[in-house]
Amino acid sequence: MTDAAYLLVHDDREYLLEPGEEFGTDLGVLEVPEDVADGDTVETHLGTAFEVRELRGPDLFNHLERTGAPMMPRDVGLVMGHTGASGGDRVLDAGTGTGILAAYLGRAGADVTSYEVDDEFADVARANMATAGVADRVEVRTGDITEELDALADGDPFDALTLDTGDAPAVVERADEVLASGGCLAVYSPFVEGTRDAVLAAREAGLDGIETLETIQREMDFSDRGSRPSTAGVGHTGYLVFARAP
């Protein structure tokens, strides 16, 4: 896998740039060599040195072009852990959005077919997959997955189904038709109502091991006075439903 872009880092400055790109900053103009590689040092015309780094998962979240609120890394981690998606797996995804989850899945080696109903969002996601170096493993299709289920059910089964859409319950109802035996389902929703509907649909579909989690995360504060959880608000992001095909 070769990233189409690299991070150029100097202290707290990070720029996502492609080989051959020229970028102006207050520290000088960066000219990225065509043959740039991880570990290289690139200097601006004023002599400021930037370290070249390969992209990692957190970098994708921080720097890919956004078309809305992307799935948070904590949620992506749970999806990756509960589905176990890895090299050679076929994943059916819907609600591509920015494509953070699809990129993570592709970088884990899975072959991903992702559906996005918004034409402009889909175009941005395709560009993001190229930047992340997974354009050969992640196919972003423009369309509504609920209208493609018959055709998808007639094809080869998928090892995982990941959904981040308002109509996820309608897809979950037919999850057993597109998933291989033992295949994993993951549904993300920011709202309880959508989560409940997804659980009920999973039960109706006869899926196994149905489990629902709320993702909450708190930072820790460390000072001379002592250590405790941050007094900032509890970090709720959403709900995740997991299940497996019988």
From TrEMBL:
Stored PROSITE patterns: SAM_TRM61 (PS51620)
GO terms, molecular function: methyltransferase activity
Sequence ranges assigned to domain tRNA (adenine(58)-N(1))-methyltransferase catalytic subunit TRM61 C-terminal in this UniProt record: 74-221
Gene3D superfamilies associated with the record: Vaccinia Virus protein VP39
A biological process term (GO) from this entry: tRNA processing
UniProt KW keywords: Methyltransferase, S-adenosyl-L-methionine, Transferase, tRNA processing
S-adenosyl-L-methionine recorded as keyword: yes
Xref: InterPro entries: SAM-dependent_MTases_sf, TRM61_C, tRNA_MeTrfase_Gcd14
Cited PANTHER family: TRNA (ADENINE(58)-N(1))-METHYLTRANSFERASE, TRNA (ADENINE(58)-N(1))-METHYLTRANSFERASE, MITOCHONDRIAL
Protein name as it appears in the record: Methyltransferase domain-containing protein
UniProt organism field: Halorubrum yunnanense
Lineage: Archaea, Methanobacteriati, Methanobacteriota, Stenosarchaea group, Halobacteria
